[in-house]
Design goal:
Helix content is about 65%, strand content about 5%. By secondary structure, it is mostly helical. The protein has three domains: about 5-100, MgtE N-terminal fold (Alpha Horseshoe); about 115-220, CBS-domain (Roll), CATH 3.10.580.10; about 250-420, Tetracycline Repressor, domain 2, CATH 1.10.357.20. The strands form two sheets. Strands 1-2-3 form a three-stranded mixed beta sheet. A three-stranded mixed beta sheet has the order 4-5-6. The longest helix is centred in the last third of the chain and has 31 residues, at about 325-355. It is elongated. The N and C termini lie far apart (about 75 Å).
Length: about 425
């Protein structure tokens, strides 16, 4: 691994089993090992800590406080206590301060090691402070400017400092500060960093006092983890939270089995609907031919709408207050999709089963597509409004719900049109 850069080493370690990973990691030089360890997923870090024994404390101490906090969430309580106890007093205080914030908050992901200067400081003195404290700070590319009580008044970029006369007061060249609160949701804070194109954003407490900085690299990690979680749950599984090849087969089973069991229970409703309309199916057997087609079409339409809305919600394109607008757009979209599919499919259906069945199928496709996109767009936003992760109630559950209601619509239209 001597010829690989840090990112490549991290990638290769994620492909190894636990024993081989520990052996390979021990072969790394100390400084390189710390760099690699910082970039590993917390779950893999926890496994390595268990195998490093006496070396674990030294590597733990070399991490930034926010990386330590993430690792401590993964290791047993006894190991966490030992690692914390081995830290110098100032590093111990910085790490435990982060652990005091909620697990998914910006405070848990920020770095408390930040260079800040008081209002009135000259640009020259600011640059001197950056040079003096830069090695210990998470970032020096953006410097918060604070008033009494460390209340943030603005920020100044390193570029602006370098290009400005050293005698100029820093508050004369600072920009208005975009801040996030330490108690804000980490995903929201990360979106602020990404959407604003910031290198870092000051993090403040409830009284607007500076407590840290959320850097762009940490923000991107938060968004990547959230995207992985949404993708997994949209597909009906729990996120792995680690490289695929480092997960055991039993781990893969655990990530999926609970969802499959719940979906089996939900799918039993479809069986119940078919059983209820058993007499109608017996009278017009041709109706059964199109059940898989309708179930698939409705489920796919609902999944498309749900996936689109969940993604739009995740990136801030739509909010919970936009439910009416989103549902209206998706209802019209579903209607037009249904009309298109019905127009294309009614001819073949009539040739196979006759004009009456073709009419039933056409009306049902229009109704099911409209229903599916309406449900698929509204449920994620309503779930988010009541504090439930939209991905949990997205594609798999919506597909199952639409399957059941779609069959009810199908057989109800068939009874009305065919008189059975």
């Amino acid at each position: 691994m001597a010829t690989l850069n840090v990112a490549e080493v991290v990638h290769e370690l994620g492909r190894l089993g636990a024993t081989d990973r520990a052996v390979a990691f021990r072969l790394l030089a100390k400084d390189r090992a710390v760099e690699v360890f910082e970039d590993l997923d917390p779950a893999l870090q926890a496994e390595l800590v268990a195998s490093l024994h006496g070396h674990a404390a030294a590597i733990f101490a070399a991490l930034d406080p926010d990386d330590r906090a993430a690792l401590l969430d993964e290791v047993p309580a006894g190991v966490a206590r030992r690692l914390l106890a081995a830290l110098p007093p100032d590093e111990h205080a910085a790490t435990t301060a982060l652990l005091g914030y909620p697990e998914d908050s910006a405070g848990r992901r920020m770095s408390p090691e930040v260079v800040a200067v008081p209002v009135g400081t000259t640009v020259g003195d600011t640059i001197a402070q950056v040079r003096a404290a830069g090695d210990d700070a998470e970032t020096v590319y953006v410097v918060p400017v604070v008033a009494d009580g460390r209340r943030v008044r603005g920020v100044v970029s390193l570029r602006r400092l370098v290009l400005t006369d050293p005698a100029t007061p820093v508050d004369a060249v600072m920009s208005p500060a975009t801040t996030v609160r330490a108690t804000d949701d980490a995903e929201h804070a990360a979106n602020v960093v990404r959407d604003g194109g910031f290198v870092g954003v000051p993090v403040v407490d409830g009284e607007d006092r500076l407590v840290g900085v959320l850097t762009v690299d940490d923000a991107m990690r938060v968004l990547e983890a959230e995207d992985d979680e949404d993708s997994a749950r949209t597909g009906g599984a729990e996120p792995l939270r680690r490289p695929y090849l480092s997960v055991s087969v039993l781990g893969l089973v655990r990530s999926r089995v609970v969802w499959l069991l719940m979906l089996i229970v939900a799918a039993s409703l479809t069986v119940g609907v078919q059983s209820y309309f058993e007499d109608e199916l017996a009278q017009v057997v041709a109706l059964a031919l199109f059940v898989p087609l309708l179930i698939g079409t409705g489920g796919n339409a609902g999944s498309q709408a749900a996936t689109t809305v969940v993604r739009a919600s995740a990136v801030g394109d739509v909010r919970t207050g936009d439910v009416a607008r989103v549902v209206g757009r998706e209802m019209l979209t579903g209607l037009l999709l249904g009309l298109t599919l019905a127009t294309v499919g009614v001819g073949p259906a009539m040739l196979v089963a006759g004009p009456a069945i073709g009419l039933v199928l056409a009306l049902t496709v229009v109704a099911v597509c409209t229903l599916a996109t309406t449900v698929g767009s509204s449920v994620p936003l309503l779930a988010k409004r009541v504090g439930i992760d939209p991905a949990i109630v997205s594609a798999p559950f919506i597909s199952t719900f639409v399957d059941t209601t779609g069959l009810i619509v199908y057989f109800s239209i068939a009874k009305a049109v065919l008189g059975i």
